[in-house]
């Protein structure tokens, strides 16, 4: 009997310990610091940079004016060598994870077989009026495992010229076009709404939001001041200008009195005047600068490439995209933390010996992250390089699925036993790239060092860092 009681007590004790351990492990998981990105926004962050493709009537009326005015003749639209897979392969060659296409630009010409107007591919000579750019491209994107988005211009100069016999107003006309694109081609990953003159048009944006919510529940929406009120949980913001952005991007923005995840999506011209106008793609150095002032500041840009009137991306452009991807890949491969001599330590971390230990900072896995205890708002992460190394810069990633937290940090290098501050900033975000002599580090030269420190001086909640890379001399 005593033996039975002893064994029963032992079992209860072990079960209690296991339950306590399980509970403790659950407690150690950091709570989300709201707001957080939804799945569509997180996929957008992880895409890092997306190809923006302007292709339509203006491709066949090349000039320095990208507008188009609705008077262009659809007969001129004839991309005789159009090859959607060539576009997808060019995007992948450049490292782009997605393509966003102008399905309709300001001139009102529709790149698909629409029932709303005859100002479309149906009135062209191309494929005897039976072709469909959207159908071909979205199929090629799926085959190539590439993200696909649609830009449907709110402005429509062709409609302005004569209206429509089928619709009482432009709002109904535009809604019908969006419905076709949202229901006839399968999943759409992104909608891109240009807000140019949007306030002057009588469009029910709440109705459009309902359509997107119902038909494309996983799409992110660049809304340029039109849709955030109605789709606040998956919107991207107009940054105020085209081109690169400033550092310290803040994703936490108030919309209609509620704090939301609302990052900016910059749009950048790499070729043409949006549309192909027989000018070459920008230089490799210019592409690098744009990359560093967008991806390097924690946002995902649309980088515009213009197919020519034959329906192909220029071979010289593809060559430049390959050069660009080679540079991006080499930048990330030049990581001194991957040496066997490297040691990573911190002043403290969440539950000693747990999965939040500092070693995960150099494991090349975004979904593992260093974390402090809940009550900590600062941290010091030290990387001992083992030997003196030439340093070109740093790549830092915050674990944003649980929110944007860091609001002040600095980087120090160890030179002959002394720690020297070499850089300071506020926000880290999804990815922060700091490269000697470029963008926000244009006047900085990093010293040869045998150790580096990331010092988080202020965080809004316990800091979560996924990656800390030290870029070696390239």
CATH architecture of the largest domain: Alpha-Beta Barrel
CATH topology of the largest domain: TIM Barrel
N-to-C CA distance:
75 Å
Q: Could you list the spans in which at least 5 consecutive residues all have pLDDT below 50? A: 1-27
Summarize this, please?
The chain is an alpha/beta fold and 474 residues long. It contains nine helices and 19 strands.
Q: Please, could you describe this protein's structure?
A:
This protein has 474 residues and is α/β, with parallel strands linked by helices. It has 2 domains: 39-333, Glycosidases (TIM Barrel, Alpha-Beta Barrel), CATH 3.20.20.80; 336-472, Jelly Rolls, CATH 2.60.120.260. 24% of the residues lie in helices and 23% in strands. It is globular and about 75 Å long. Mean pLDDT is 92; it is low at 1-27.
Layout: helices, strands, pairs:
Layout lengths: L1 H27 L10 H9 L2 E4 L30 H10 L4 E7 L28 H11 L3 E6 L4 H6 L7 H14 L6 E3 L12 H11 L4 E3 L12 E2 L15 E4 L2 E4 L5 E3 L14 H9 L9 E4 L9 H19 L9 E4 L23 E2 L7 E11 L1 E8 L7 E10 L2 E8 L6 E4 L13 E11 L4 E9 L2
Describe this protein with a few key phrases.
474 residues; 9 helices; alpha/beta; 19 strands; 5-stranded antiparallel sheet; 2 domains; TIM Barrel; 23% strand; globular
